[in-house]
Amino acid sequence: QVQLVESGGGLVQAGGSLRLSCAASGGTFSTYNIGWFRQAPGKERQFVAFISRSGGSTYYADSVKGRFTISRDNAKNTVHLQMNTLKPEDTAVYYCAADRRTWGIGSYDYWGQGTQVTVSS
């Protein structure tokens, strides 16, 4: 069973950047596919990005494509989400999730507690 802890959130002005991290422990990290999701107040949780267990495949929501980059370092049990050209509509709590089978958008077994990202206009 893997535990996930997100970090790196904060307050940033529109056009700025943030780098989120998802640190894993308690499992063989390289066997898990990782997804990033976000949830804004009053809205449903939304898929943001995905990276396969090897890092060889990545997918992005259309709303973040070209602005966000997902990467992973299996030696450090960490996944990063580099977020550039942030917009106010990117404001949300961001969660990372892990699953051995899920590919892309789907059901993930393990979730972190989330990190708040606020983009001011």
Report what the structure shows:
This protein is mostly beta strands and 121 residues long. It contains no helices and 11 strands. The protein has strands at residues 3-7, 10-13, 18-25, 33-39, 46-51, 58-60, 68-73, 78-83, 92-99, 110-111, 115-120. The strands form 2 sheets. Strands 2, 4, 5, 6, 9, 10 and 11 form a 7-stranded mixed beta sheet that branches. The protein has a 4-stranded antiparallel beta sheet with strand order 1-3-8-7, with no helix packed on it. Strand 4 (33-39) and strand 5 form a beta hairpin. It is globular and about 40 Å long.
Question: What does the secondary structure layout of this molecule look like, with pairings?
Answer:
Layout (H helix, E strand, L loop, with lengths): L2 E5 L2 E4 L4 E8 L7 E7 L6 E6 L6 E3 L7 E6 L4 E6 L8 E8 L10 E2 L3 E6 L1
Parallel strand pairs: 2-11
Antiparallel strand pairs: 1-3, 3-8, 4-5, 4-9, 5-6, 7-8, 9-10, 9-11
